[in-house]
Write a structure and sequence with these properties.
mainly alpha
Length: 266
């Protein structure tokens, strides 16, 4: 429910330019409220859903992702190695862990690289949804030893998320774009007109750039994904709650109920 609440809040942050409301560009006040609420909800999620070992793994993955982003700040086009850990962590440990990993990775890397600003809530939410998508993709393979089929499935998910992440982040840039009236946004714009303008803006300015991110995500999963997935699976097997479904009562992973026997008569 916490993940759903955060996602609904995030959708409001991304969709407000298409509502026809006469709000100022990028709505910094809304962004700050979203950031504060997201932080509180993530703390609540951590207190209720994570033991110390899962939290330690989350911190480790977030630090590694932040380090890779800091080492390649400019990226190669839209590609950034940050998404590799988010994809693998979400795929093995589930949507909730994937969302926390994505949000924390972008937050830590923003602090390290000096990228803190009103755009940060957009980045945290979009990266968190990348982890959610990876977690949902991994549900079908939960409990099985990772194989090359997992690499194909996770690589396709990573490629799609590379495009989707760029489109989400373009909402931030697009609200400031004034160079071409047929592409830009203005307060009070009708929803259908806003959608048409954004589609043209994205195709003209970002599709090729985001294509490099999509290809890079798939390439990193193909090259390094199998040993990382196997290692994360082994680490997850040592947790008190092995996988997310066990915490949710999934009969495939939860401990079986004790069997009661009746004494023999006579």
């Amino acid at each position: 429910m916490i993940l759903v609440a955060v996602s609904v809040l995030g959708l409001g942050l991304f969709l407000w330019p298409f509502t026809g409301l006469g709000l100022p560009p990028a709505t910094p006040a809304l962004a700050l409220v979203a950031a504060a609420t997201l932080a509180l909800l993530l703390v609540e999620a951590g207190q209720r859903r994570m033991d110390s070992r899962r939290l330690a793994l989350l911190v480790t993955l977030s630090a590694v992702d932040a380090g890779m982003r800091a080492a390649l700040v400019t990226g190669i086009g839209g590609f950034s190695p940050t998404f590799f850990g988010i994809l693998c962590g979400g795929y093995v440990l589930g949507p909730s862990f994937g969302f926390s990993c994505g949000s924390a990775s972008l937050l830590v890397s923003a602090v390290v690289t000096g990228g803190v600003g009103p755009w940060l809530p957009y980045q945290m939410l979009a990266a968190g949804w990348v982890g959610v998508a990876a977690g949902l993709a991994g549900r079908a393979r939960r409990g099985a030893r990772p194989t090359r089929w997992d690499l194909l499935w996770l690589g396709a998910t990573g490629a799609a998320c590379g495009i989707a992440f760029g489109a989400c982040m373009d909402v931030w840039n697009w609200t400031f774009f004034r160079a071409a009236p047929q592409l830009g946004w203005s307060p009070g714009m009708a929803p259908l007109i806003a959608l048409a303008h954004f589609a043209r803006y994205y195709l003209a300015t970002s599709l090729a750039y985001d294509g490099l991110r999509a290809a890079g995500n798939a390439a990193m999963v193909a090259a390094f994904g199998l040993p990382v997935l196997v290692g994360l699976r082994r680490v997850a097997a040592r947790f008190t709650v092995t996988l997310e479904e066990a915490a949710d009562g999934d009969p495939g992973t939860a401990d079986p109920a004790p069997v009661r026997t009746r004494p023999a008569s006579g």
